[in-house]
């Protein structure tokens, strides 16, 4: 049985194999193996810090009062680089919420040539955790997408394709980038109680288990896999959606194929043109976190061994869609 489904995120092709057994002249379907992993307890409780935004505290036809407008959370871009991979240009890096409130993060990158001519601009899509808790760090990648079916020889597909991607046709080679980051206070989709356990690494795959230790169901789990070079500098980010959700106090297995290419080249790693909420990123890092311990994040990286062209990696879990309400 082969099922093909089209979702808003990606195409899913699932093949099920059924086994027939002949018993006393009659044919029967052999039952599938069931997961007998049951939570030990029936009732669970959890202490949760929740947030609520009042909005307008007083009903009025006038403009919103200044005291009802929330201050934007303070974010910091820890690193950012313009990289090239198979004639595709991307901006990769890491961002941290250094405030004390959750943040909804938006990232927009722009590419320029040596003469400061704008070549392309696009936002971060799947390769970032858009909801960051206080002090949480996320890797990100911005792929630059062009306008689809703009040429006369292009034909519009008859059906929706969530994997449709039109690369930008660069007239000149990008050499500089501008990164605009904006954060607003988030009060929903902040469920983070998913842990990675039993992580195993072989030359071609990463296998492990995601365990939901909270009291809400995770609808669509997402893995963010970051790759680092020998200097522990981030050079690439990939993602993977799990096909099934994770019920409360249960686990889900995953298997991710490693990237084995060696064609990634760092073009520019200058943070001079990186801005957070309209302010230079450098001034934020010097004022808010003047004595940052940069080795703390690097110590969390895991070595990949000698079988790949990357030296270290990191896996993050993101509840992409949110929890059913």
What does this structure look like?
- It is a single chain.
- This protein has one domain.
- The longest helix has 8 residues.
- It contains 2 helices and 21 strands.
- It is 4% helix and 41% strand.
- By secondary structure, it is mainly β.
- It is globular, with a radius of gyration of 23 Å.
Assign the structural class, choosing from mainly alpha, mainly beta, alpha/beta, alpha+beta, or little secondary structure.
mainly beta
Would you identify the regions where 5 or more consecutive residues have pLDDT less than 50?
none
The shape, in one word, is globular
What about the largest sheet?
6 strands, mixed
Arithmetic mean pLDDT: 86
Count of discrete domains: 1
Radius of gyration: 23 Å
Assembly classification = single chain
Beta-strand share of residues: 35-45%
The string of secondary-structure elements, in order, is EEEEEEEEEEEEEEEEEEEHHEE
According to DSSP, the number of beta strands is: 21
